[in-house]
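Long-time lurker, first post.

We've been arguing in lab meeting about whether flavin-adenine dinucleotide would sit comfortably in this protein at all. Half the group thinks yes, half thinks no, and nobody has a model to point at. So I'm putting the question to the forum: if I give you the sequence and the SMILES, can you give me back a predicted structure of the complex? Inputs are below. Any interpretation is welcome too.
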Amino acid sequence: MVERCDVVVLGLGAMGAATVYQLSKAGVSVVGIDRHHPPHNQGSSHGDTRITRLSVGEGAQYVPIVRNSHRIWRELEELSGESLFEQSGLLVLTSSPEFDPNDKTDFTLRTIGLAQTYGIEHEVLSAEQIRQRFPQFANVHDTAIGYFEPGGGFVRPERCIDVQLKLAEQHGAILYKGETVTRISSNEQGVSITTNLRRLFANKLVISAGNWSSDLLGKPFDSLLSVFRQKLFWFELEENAGLVGHSPTFILTHGLGDDKVNYGFPALHGEGSLKIATAQYHTASSPQTMDRTVSAAEERDMYEHQVRGRVTGVTSKVVKSAVCAYTVTPDRHFIIDEHPSLQHTLLVSACSGHGFKHSAALGEAFAQWCMRGSTDLDLSSFSLERLKGKSL
Ligand SMILES: Cc1cc2nc3c(=O)[nH]c(=O)nc-3n(C[C@H](O)[C@H](O)[C@H](O)COP(=O)(O)OP(=O)(O)OC[C@H]3O[C@@H](n4cnc5c(N)ncnc54)[C@H](O)[C@@H]3O)c2cc1C
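Top reply:
Settle the argument with this. Predicted structure of the protein with flavin-adenine dinucleotide, as tokens:
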């Protein structure tokens, strides 16, 4: 028997959970399907915390999206009673011997520029002010520059997903977890979706399959999307470090190139550690073959190259670690577009390592696309067209 519904959402991670929530809230009959049991630790949406900030140095096109997300996280907190979004304050800083105050590509300078253009509340800090206000950065270079956004901070990814999925079910969404979509086809009437357990027919399909997207969809996505394994580390706090309640969410640039940037989160009450990570874009992987453990050598390497002498108040001991993976496009911006050959299908790859903060608002926009074929937010810069002729 073929099950029928208005919309199927394939993948219930950050993007899919937000989409089924918004659709069900609007009264649309929606089925969500996930191969795992979200929130889970096999994709891109785990590890306790994700940075969020209004001045999105990745580009001006993201500013209206994140603004909407901040509104929705607060609405979800009201509805669920869960704490999802903490405005711990966000410090973006560059402390590097190579720092050039005229370098338009510097992430801190780009963030400051956007905040000025969009009237986002912030302070620009000198090296001395950074040292005084944030003792964990007591060692910054004399030329260091900082951007402090008091309204920035972090969200709790697993909780956000869990809350939205639970609310979606309360609104009548049907969620099939532990079930894998194996085949998709479409005709003028709608889309057929086959899983390992059933067949469905929907008027619309939203595909938000994260790391698995290129395997599922083939051309042209297999040459546009790459999966990169990333590691997360929780470093033990030094005794009497005094960071709990006094450390911000941060992004630290300490040289030129991707491997000279790290980011971290506040020392949280009761945890005794500080989460710090960096990103790599040189060794591609796949969800099937990825090593999901962090080795002792990787822990040592992280401490030596990213932490020692740069972030004070932590020891070299890693008390917890995790592996998570980015799905990355050639220009590191999202792909959000109608599928080039499947009819009635929206394809979403909103990762490249910076999508979570936008997920609540994107879910709202994808629900609008399903209901009326257009979105209040301008998502045109995420079209497939811009990547024509490009590959990884
Ligand atoms: C280490 C790390 C740090 C990050 N830091 C930040 C940050 O600080 N701030 C920020 O904004 N963003 C950050 N991001 C990015 C953000 O987390 C991602 O953009 C976001 O989680 C992507 O969500 P998604 O829904 O696309 O993927 P996922 O949440 O992985 O969801 C995809 C889902 O699809 C399911 N699925 C796949 N194939 C099938 C199938 N065939 N059938 C059924 N189900 C299927 C999977 O099981 C999975 O649940 C980070 C990402 C990582 C990995």
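For your lab meeting: Residues 80 and 163 are 7 Å apart (CA to CA). The radius of gyration is 21 Å. Whichever side wins, do check it experimentally.
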